[in-house]
Amino acid sequence: MMSYLSFADLGGLTGMGPVVPEPNEAIFHSNWEATAFALSLAMGATGSWNIDMSRRARETQPDYLSLSYYQIWINGLCKLLTAQGLVTDEEIQAGQMLCPALPCPALPCL
What we know:
Elect_transpt_acc-like_dom_sf, Low-molecular weight cobalt-containing nitrile hydratase subunit beta, CN_hydtase_beta_C, single chain
């Protein structure tokens, strides 16, 4: 049984209106969005967390409704990276490595 509710689990929120798809909408509006998505997928491949942990990190952000789609992805990634001890909050704020990198486990080639 889940111990939390996320925005995706609610099937929409009363009073928020329908989700209206935008025809011909660009997938990425700027380069940082593509980078955020790629980094999230690449770091998931390290095996440091599973897809459920990744989803929870994205969908339980307190400011979820005020964030763009890719802000949600990058914030979720930062949350996972710090929770797993792969980076520090100070490194995220600085935008660079401040401590020696930890080794990631080698994964078998598929």
